[in-house]
TrEMBL record:
Compartment annotation: Mitochondrion
Protein name: Thymidine kinase 2, mitochondrial
Enzyme Commission code: 2.7.1.21, 2.7.1.74
An example Gene Ontology CC term for this record: mitochondrion
Positions with a binding annotation for ATP: G24, N25, I26, A27, S28, G29, K30, T31, T32, R159, L160, K161, Q162, R163
Residue stretches making up the Deoxynucleoside kinase domain: 20-223
Pfam families named in the record: dNK
GO biological process, one term: nucleotide metabolic process
Active site: residue positions: E100
Origin species: Cyprinus carpio carpio
Reactions this protein catalyses: 2'-deoxycytidine + ATP = dCMP + ADP + H(+); thymidine + ATP = dTMP + ADP + H(+); 2'-deoxyuridine + ATP = dUMP + ADP + H(+)
Amino acid sequence: MLSSSQGKLVRNGEGKKSVIWLEGNIASGKTTCLEYFSKTSDIEVLTEPVSKWRNVQGCNPLGLMYQDPSRWGLTLQTYVQLTMLDRHVLPMASPIRMMERSIYSAKYIFVENLYKSGKMPEVDFAVLSEWFEWIVKNIAIPVDLIVYLQTSPQTCYERLKQRCREEEKVIPLEYIESIHNLYEDWLIHHKSFEVPAPVLVMPADHDLKKMLHQFEENREKILMANC
Ligand SMILES: Nc1ncnc2c1ncn2[C@@H]1O[C@H](COP(=O)(O)OP(=O)(O)O)[C@@H](O)[C@H]1O
Ligand SMILES: Cc1cn([C@H]2C[C@H](O)[C@@H](COP(=O)(O)O)O2)c(=O)[nH]c1=O
């Protein structure tokens, strides 16, 4: 149930709960990290709705976007924005929520990349931007901590090829590099957009064993996000 607080729509009945966004490049290891934390009681894990982006009423906007970004970028990103918003306003089922990416990274990283690389027409960018601004002004999107899985583009490229998602087979290393640079400008150098919460940087080029060790080492910091 939504009500109004300080001019924004907020969810009712929520006490001191914390929301963590897990951010990082494509194939940086976000899902693997969420799988690890999903085994902890009191944490609710929300993965990205990628299956929806691959199948909306029998259509595949993710695949279409990779085939022809200029034509389908707006279609995909409108749907990403909607499905991410849907995740953000979902009532919390546990005191701690870990969520894969956010409506912010969809806009600040992926929409920005399409526009900056000349693959999104100005009018599409303007419409998406106005939608985004309206949403963040009028709907409460809580976040207490951003965990950034920091990888080299080369690592992600290797992992992407290994994962072998059909739609992503056309992705070149340069695309991963652009996404990397946008993330670094946003979360590390603070050069592009407002960062809505403190950032915990986790180096994520390591093998799985070391990553699991690192998740464990950072568990307290993550779980105490709003203290
Ligand atoms: N630390 C790691 N070392 C090697 N491979 C990894 C590591 N973490 C994840 N992977 C593999 O890389 C691929 C992408 O990982 P995934 O967790 O799906 O990334 P994301 O959710 O960020 O796209 C998967 O095949 C996964 O098994
Ligand atoms: C948020 C967002 C994602 N995408 C694309 C990028 C990848 O191909 C998938 C997400 O997979 P990941 O392994 O979880 O990174 O979706 C996009 O094109 N636009 C977006 O806003």
